Amino acid sequence: MANNHRRFTSVEICAGAGGQAIGLEMAKFEHLALVEIDPHACQTLRVGFEGSQVIEGDVREFLAAVKNDASDYADLDLLAGGVPCPPFSLAGKQLGQDDERDLFPVMLDLVAVLQPKAVMIENVRGLLQSKFEPYRRQILARLEALGYEETDWDRFEASDFGVPQLRPRSILVALRKDIAPYYSAPERGKVTTPTVGEALMKSMVLRGMSEEDAAAWADGADNIAPTLVGGSKKHGGADLGPGRAKAQLKAMNIDAWAVADDNAPPVPVIPKGHKEARVNGPRLTVAQAARLQGFPDNWPFQGGKTARYRQVGNAFPPPVAEAVATQIREAIEAAERGDPLPVVPEQQQRSVTSIPRRSRAPRTAEPANLPQ
């Protein structure tokens, strides 16, 4: 019989500003370690998860440390992480395993050392392209050899979980083979997803827009946002993404060419060198971008405006992480209770190396970037 007061533990690598960690905590996981290399994001984690162990540094150094002594992480429930996306991003060179930034091998080595009950890996949707199928199969074969079964590797869209942007991601869930039969993917579309206008109308009023003008603005921003893009230290900055995203946001009367200062009033912006006829709508603040990403209000992002926006744009939306992690926890609980194994219809059964795909007509054009 499972202990009603059992604590569920997690270790997360590439933790960023805590988007996934917030979701794991909401799913009742306790952070034993949050590993992140960016100093601004680490400071955000220290403030947001006061008392949790934040390890600032390269995840390879963390791997070397736990190879020497993993006693602090004994009987670990969940190893999670959003390994770097550029090797598989549709906007990059898509070098995959040949990209020096690919950390899948490090993640799998951590699985071997820490031996968690469950593994959860998040990445861009580009990883699900057919060109990366051989690499995906290598990953699954390594996990199977370590005693895990892939229970789900699929495309998830944040908008299916109440987050007002598209943000399609690939998420791999693998569980120890005695736990895997109890897992089922989270149900999509259980909550109503607000539009950008609905999500941000009150914050526009707080920034100084009249209630009447805010309501009119919200009526025009009547769709979900394209995908927020944070950029990197070498590329990108405090704007909301590529031209396609900017055009989609302009259609919702948002100026996506820059991020507003925290206390800036939401006034229309006339771009330099353009006539007033080309005026854009108000710019969004970092806090508003974070709301569109599913962060709780007042999450303590640290650093300057550009550093804080990059943390937002590179994050894993907390509601998606919570939904998946809750299913993982419930599977572990069911296995520990010794519940009868669920009956899986024959048409839903698939091999451990299958890579499912789902088709869904998005509510707006293909992903781009968006603020909160």
Task: Give a description of the structure.
This protein has helices at residues 19-26, 39-48, 59-68, 104-114, 133-145, 196-206, 211-220, 243-250, 286-292, 305-313, 318-337; strands at residues 8-13, 29-36, 54-56, 78-81, 118-124, 148-157, 168-176. The longest helix is centred in the C-terminal third of the chain and has 20 residues, at 318-337. The protein is α/β, with parallel strands linked by helices and 372 residues long. Helix 3 (59-68) packs parallel to helix 4 (104-114) and helix 6 (196-206) packs antiparallel against helix 7 (211-220). The chain is built from 11 helices and 7 strands. The relative contact order is 0.16. The protein has 2 domains: 8-191 and 314-348, Rossmann fold (3-Layer(aba) Sandwich); 196-313, no CATH class. The N and C termini lie far apart (45 Å).
Give start-end ranges of low-pLDDT stretches: 85-101, 349-372
Secondary structure category: alpha/beta
Query: How far apart are the first and last residues' alpha carbons, in Å?
Result: 45 Å
Which superfamily, in CATH terms, is the homologous superfamily of the largest domain?
Vaccinia Virus protein VP39
CATH class (first level) name of the largest domain? Alpha Beta
The percentage of residues in β strands lies in: 5-15%
Helix coverage percent = 25-40%
SS summary, helix count: 11
The overall pLDDT average reads 85
Classify the fold: give the CATH topology of the largest domain.
Rossmann fold
Biggest β-sheet: strands ordered side by side in the sheet: 3-2-1-4-5-7-6
Radius of gyration: 21 Å
